[in-house]
Description:
Blueprint: H1 9-13, H2 17-27, H3 32-45, H4 49-55, H5 65-84, H6 88-113, H7 118-146, H8 150-175
Amino acid sequence: MTDHRQVPDAARAVRTPLLRLAHAAEEADALDAPVALVGGWARRLLADDRLRATLRGAPLGHALHPLMTDVPLGLWMSASVLDLGGHSRAAKRLVGLGVLAALPTVATGLADWSVSGDRIRRVGVVHAAGNAVGLALYSASWLARRRGHHRSGALAALAGATMVGVGGYLGGHMAYPLGGPPEDPTLPPR
């Protein structure tokens, strides 16, 4: 059986801008300071073994974070479809629900990140930064819509989708080529 995490030689030859970003992040010693800072927060926030194991998906038998990402992403993408159909009130609700759903999703990602190796942790801080910008844009979208500025809100949502798309690419890079996070949900934060 072939390991799904091994990248075929033909795929290695493809050097997209996002792949270059992912590889640069893996090697960037400059990211070690933010990694250490976030790592300190993670150790404090995830000190309780049961909480950490739950956030890592122990009750499910596998990582919870990938499942959780589907909730805000699905809500946000659905809002954009509703925007195209002129259903601004429903789109506003979905954007707001997506912002709320992003918070526990962040917690599950932090729990996985906290037990990962150095290369994954470096890519992870870039992944988190991109997703934080995306979340800020979706929050701005909701606020604009709440104030009656539907068009501005829809444009902010599209910008947010771009950022969470980049973040999602980096998340996939951590999971597949880098093989993270470790499967054992009881590992302590690094």
